[in-house]
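task queued by scheduler; priority normal; single chain, no ligands, no partner chains; default sampling; output format set to C-alpha cells
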Amino acid sequence: MKKRCSLKVLLCAVLLVGTGSAGTALALTVVGDLGGESTAPLFDAINAGPRATPANRPALQQPPKSLSISDMLPVSTPEMTPGQVAARPLNLPGMPPVFIVGDDPSSRQWLETHAASLRQSGATGMVVNVSDEANLNALRQLAPGLSLVPVRGGDLARRLQLAHYPVLITASGMQQ
C-alpha cells in the first residue's frame, strides 16, 4: 500500500512538472509524506537488462482463494490495555474518525454508550484485542451499523503515544 501511494505521489509530481511550459518552474506542494520509502525498488527492472530480477528475491506468494474474518483472528495488541485515556488535542487534517476498542467490559460499556454518536460521525472501529469471531460479532451486535474490524494497534499506539482504550480519535483530538 505504501509503495502504491509513493508511486502515485511520484507520478503526480512528474505530470505536474511535465505540464509546465519551458522556462517556467512550477512549485510542488507536498500534501502528504506516506512513510518516506524510496521508490527505487519499483524501477529496478526498467532498462536493467537480462539480470533485472535478483537471485535472492523471494518468489511472490499467491493469496489464498478466499479470506474471511476468521483468518485475521485472534488479534492481540500487547501495547494497549483497557484503561483511562486523557483527552488531548491532535492536528491530523483529513483524518476520518476512528475509535479503538477491545473485547473487554469497559470497551463494551463505552461502545454501547457512544454507538449513536459514533454512527453519526461515520467513525470506523478498530478492535485491537479480540480472540475469535464470536466475540467480534458480539461487539458488533452492541453497535449495529458501525464498522468494527480486527486490527493490530501497536503502530498507532506508538505514533499517538496511546497505551489504553476505548478511545475516539478524530482530526482534532482524542477523547474517551
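post-processing summary
- The CA atoms of residues 128 and 151 lie 5 Å apart.
- The chain has two domains: 2-51, 70-175.
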